[in-house]
């Protein structure tokens, strides 16, 4: 993504900072790292130093969740609740940007969902965190918050992204790939947002949130496991398959489970384990069988973005062919359009 250092910087910014938990503010009282409340003073110190070192005046408003969490505890509503807070605070104070301090374990999932929820917010929303808590030797907390603030001082895009280590990652393309490296995140495939964002239909959001889930196939996978996941996640299931979209057939048990689910209205979205390339359900017989059973090809979406988008569209009240249409439409750059597949070169011996 664009480097914060290359865009035009301003000399003053106003920022909302929301602390939700994560290693950034954790302490270890002898039983392992845990999140703690009350990080306002330390954050103010980091900002004062940022102002001195960068010559940028920062007007900021600091809030934190009533109960900060280890982000591994994030639930199905966590991203939506954070997005609501960001939106309502933004509407009141109209900051230049928002920084959300968050745990790294689920930052890409939460960030991707926030990106869909806040797709029209018009200001940068930056998630950041740390691999080592603030104040401990070798901590990356201050430098990551500094990167986030700099990205608001030199805004290049008004979207949701992750500032971590040396890089900015569009949230809909980000994935945590290291727990032992300051550069903990990677951007999986290029992010190419549509030039004019498509307008989703006005549909009444569901009052009851239907659960959506994620299931990864593996050699030896018992078909009952997939069936159980499809029954539990009635809102929809992202199915992370092999390669261009294949899975163990078990005779036809897995495809039959998919057919049963789609015919009762549970969408199934097929994505790939691979970091490069895209799902092509026409290529192999298991892919065709899934497509004929009603599965939707999820292109080259990351697991985090696919789960976020499916949950977002289902919560908007979309279903059937409408859901299929919007799931396969590039909304924010989460999906390459046209598909990123390159023909495999023919080699002859
Ligand atoms: N378990 C922590 C969390 O996600 C890890 C981190 O923040 O780096 O909250």
Features:
Rossmann fold; 9 helices; about 350 residues; binds aspartic acid; globular; six-stranded mixed beta sheet; four-stranded parallel beta sheet; 14 strands; 2 domains; single chain; alpha/beta
Write up what this structure looks like.
With 349 residues, this protein is an alpha/beta fold. It folds into 2 domains: 12-187, 3-Layer(aba) Sandwich (Rossmann fold), CATH 3.40.50.1170; 212-327, 3-Layer(aba) Sandwich (Rossmann fold). Helices cover 30% and strands 20% of the residues. The longest helix has 16 residues, at 78-93. The model is unreliable at 340-344 (pLDDT under 50). The structure holds aspartic acid. Aspartic acid binds next to loops.
Quick summary:
This protein has 349 residues and is an alpha/beta fold.
What is the helix tally? Answer: 9
Shape: globular
**Beta-strand residue percentage:** 15-25%
Uncertain residue segments? 340-344
Topology:
Blueprint: E1 12-21, E2 27-28, E3 33-34, H1 40-54, E4 57-69, H2 78-93, E5 97-101, H3 107-117, E6 125-128, H4 141-153, E7 160-164, E8 167-170, E9 174-176, E10 185-187, E11 212-216, H5 223-232, E12 236-241, H6 253-263, E13 268-272, H7 285-292, E14 296-297, H8 303-315, H9 320-327
Parallel strand pairs: 1-4, 1-5, 5-6, 6-7, 11-12, 12-13, 13-14
Antiparallel strand pairs: 2-3, 7-8, 9-10
Helix pairs in contact: 2-3, 3-8, 5-6
Aspartic acid is lined by residues 21-23, 70-72, 103-105, 129, 131.
